[in-house]
Automatic annotation (TrEMBL):
The keyword Disulfide bond does not apply. PANTHER family: TRANSCRIPTIONAL REGULATORY PROTEIN NARL-RELATED, TWO-COMPONENT RESPONSE REGULATOR. GO terms for biological process: phosphorelay signal transduction system; regulation of DNA-templated transcription. Residues 4-134 form the Response regulatory domain. It holds the Pfam family GerE. It comes from the Bacteria. This is DNA-binding response regulator. Keywords: DNA-binding, Phosphoprotein, Transcription, Transcription regulation. Residues 166-231 form the HTH luxR-type domain. One of its GO terms (molecular function) is DNA binding. The modification 4-aspartylphosphate is found at residue 55.
Length: 237
């Protein structure tokens, strides 16, 4: 399956560099480029890409607002999910920026971004991130996840209005799923979860997929937030 990508950055050179690298990669295809946040939103609506690589600082509408509109739009979701009745297309947003301050990090997460990257990363790492996010799996490294979400959870509720809804409950999941959710919240990868629970990696992935469906979570980052909000992981852990 080809991962369809939209590039949103106000610097043409950045878009060109990414487009040329992606063009040489099997399974990845650039289906559009945007120089502003508004253009990115329009392209996402028109092309229904799997992933949008989004800059933060752009003229007019910034990348955080564009991310919010894309991820909360009428067809919001992100990897195509199939259930017994319908298919829902999912568009993930990766924020790629030169700014790595906390306001940008939290703003991107609260807007619904599936990941946060900085532009000094190797191009190969950015390509890997696009593939990972397109599958609905986690993007942030465990250590980054723990730092970001611990601080996120410690902020007053009024400071995080767009976090995962506090009304979401974990009451409908099994005991084993609660264990897996707690480990996801602690920043463990599927391989680490498998080792901790003495199960196969495939089984760990299955549990994570079930949690995404049962908790109506867009991606792994949202599962981490739910784990903290539900008290399965203490913010000081």
């Amino acid at each position: 399956m080809t991962v369809r990508v939209v590039l949103a950055d106000d610097q043409p050179l950045v878009r060109t560099a990414l487009r040329l690298v992606i063009a040489d990669e099997a399974g990845l295809e650039v289906v559009g480029e945007a120089g502003t946040g508004a253009e990115a939103v329009a392209l996402a609506e028109k092309e229904r890409p799997d992933v949008v690589v989004m800059d933060i600082r752009m003229p007019g509408m910034d990348g955080i607002e564009a991310t919010r509109l894309i991820t909360r739009g009428p067809d919001a979701g992100h990897v195509t999910r199939v259930d017994a009745t319908h298919v829902t297309h999912v568009t993930h947003v990766i924020v790629l920026t030169t700014f790595d301050d906390d306001d940008c990090l939290y703003g991107a997460l609260r807007a619904g971004a599936a990941g946060f990257l900085v532009k000094d990363m190797a191009l190969e790492d950015i390509l890997d991130a696009i593939r990972v996010v397109a599958t609905g799996d986690g993007l942030l490294a465990p250590s980054v996840t723990r730092r970001l979400i611990r601080d996120f959870a410690d902020r007053p509720a009024s400071a995080t209005p767009d976090a995962a809804p506090s009304a979401r409950t974990v009451g409908g999941i099994t005991g084993r799923e609660r264990e897996v959710l707690a480990l996801v919240g602690a920043g463990l990868s599927n391989t680490e979860i498998a080792e901790r629970l003495s199960i196969s990696v495939a089984t760990a992935k299955t549990y994570v997929s079930r949690l995404l469906t049962k908790l109506d979570a867009r991606d792994r980052v949202r599962l981490v937030i739910i784990a903290y909000e539900s008290g399965l992981v203490a913010s000081g852990r």
